Automatic annotation (TrEMBL):
Coiled coil: none annotated. Residues 140-278 form the GFO/IDH/MocA-like oxidoreductase domain. The keyword Oxidoreductase applies. This is Glucose-6-phosphate 3-dehydrogenase. Its EC number is 1.1.1.361. Pfam families: GFO_IDH_MocA, GFO_IDH_MocA_C3. GO terms for molecular function: glucose-6-phosphate 3-dehydrogenase activity; nucleotide binding. SUPFAM superfamilies: Glyceraldehyde-3-phosphate dehydrogenase-like, C-terminal domain, NAD(P)-binding Rossmann-fold domains. Keywords: Oxidoreductase.
Length: 376
């Protein structure tokens, strides 16, 4: 068994999802490489130590530059707020490390371009954690589309709805609420949630050419969690946009953190000439499928329960009919990454793939700011 020594930077929610992926992948997938949890890095040493103990990291660093310098680290996992992705990734690439970076790739396209150049110049393997591609039902949707079962695609529709920032007392900044601080996050729902929808959309339906967007910031001022200062909120709380795809289809996307009652409702629907599909994160095993070539007397929406061994990833899990969950998407991503080390093939989404999503996000934000259609 060959080893892949991981240096994790950050220990928040995403640090846990990725680490769980490293711990589980070899239990379920037949792989030649095995991740080793070498070190976790965070400014707060006590918290880093507690995380290391809970998850089994062998050591702790408090300075990410030291972690990158270490000879016993093969891959850097960037789980920091977005404003550190660029600096860390470029330094890691220069040190010859593989990089697994949390989404979105960067604060903006210019940063993303620099990051792509750095990993490509250094020739280091790189990947971005757009995990929803690896929900078995979403991967099955990709297979059905690639087989031509939908025919010409007319419409792509996606939503990502949450409600956790409605209360004006939720602060911005700090460890738990940095996603509300533009200096740390770059943008609001566009970079955080729509980026997932855009990544999946480009993967399933091809490139996006132009966009027309509207954004809103419903709570205009929030206290900063660290300084206690009341500051204007500069992120987008909600964003909707229309777009055209390269293949001529129309896209309609909506995301908000103000949809009372919705915690993480990611849904997508694709309508083609021959068939349609739809999927909902809250029922993630189910792929709804309507095939117009079915016998008309029984034609209707089929509810495909994606748990069978010959459906994507499911042969590695339990027995047909039994389910897996959100955390498994990260296990699949780790397994695919480890497999790519064996085969030498690129594994998507690479930094370059994620740059496409970044470009769409930037076009969306500038379209909303200028109230105009924008080319991507
Ligand atoms: C935000 O609440 C968030 O955690 C995102 O940052 C994740 O990327 C998304 O998958 C779930 O929601």
């Amino acid at each position: 068994m060959k080893t892949l020594n991981i240096g994790m930077i950050g220990y928040g929610f995403m640090g846990r999802t990725h680490t769980n992926g490293y711990c589980q992948a070899n239990h379920f997938f037949d792989l030649q490489y095995k991740p080793v949890l070498k070190a976790v890095c965070a400014r707060n040493e006590e918290k880093a130590k507690a995380f290391a103990q809970q998850w089994g990291y062998e050591s702790v660093e408090t300075d990410w530059r030291k972690l990158i310098e270490r000879d016993d680290i093969d891959a850097i996992d960037v789980c920091t707020p977005n404003n550190l992705h660029k600096e860390i990734s470029i330094a890691a690439a220069k040190a010859g490390k593989m990089i697994l970076c949390e989404k979105p790739l960067a604060m903006n396209t210019a940063e993303g371009e620099e990051m792509c150049k750095a990993v490509e110049d250094a020739g280091v393997r790189n990947m971005v954690w757009y995990n929803y591609r690896r929900v078995p039902a979403v991967t099955l949707a990709k297979q059905l589309i690639d087989q031509g079962r939908l025919g010409k695609i007319f419409h792509y529709r996606a939503n990502f709805l949450q409600d956790w920032t409605i209360n004006a007392d939720v602060p911005q900044g700090g460890a738990a609420t940095w996603r509300l601080d533009a200096e740390a996050a770059g943008s609001g729902v566009t970079g955080d949630l729509l980026a997932h929808c855009i990544d999946t959309a480009i993967w399933l339906n091809g490139g996006i050419t132009d966009v027309s967007a509207v954004t809103e910031t419903f709570v205009k001022e929030r206290t900063h969690a660290e300084t206690g200062e009341k500051k204007p909120v500069k992120i987008d709380d909600a964003c909707s946009f229309f777009c055209h795809f390269d293949n001529g289809s129309l896209g309609l996307f909506e995301s908000t953190r103000y949809a009372r009652g919705h915690k993480a409702l990611y849904t997508l629907e694709i309508n083609g000439e021959k068939a349609s599909i739809r999927w909902d994160l809250h029922d993630l095993h189910r792929l709804e499928y309507f095939d117009h070539s079915d016998d008309s007397v029984v034609r209707g929406w089929r509810s495909v329960h994606v748990t069978d061994g010959d459906q994507p990833y499911m042969g590695n899990w339990w027995v047909p009919g039994l389910q897996i969950g959100y955390e498994h998407t990260f296990i699949h991503q780790v397994a695919d990454f480890l497999k790519s080390l064996e085969t030498g093939e690129a594994i998507g989404p690479t930094f370059r793939d994620a740059l496409e999503t970044q470009k769409v996000c930037d076009a969306v934000l500038s379209s909303a700011a200028e109230r105009a259609w924008k080319n991507v």
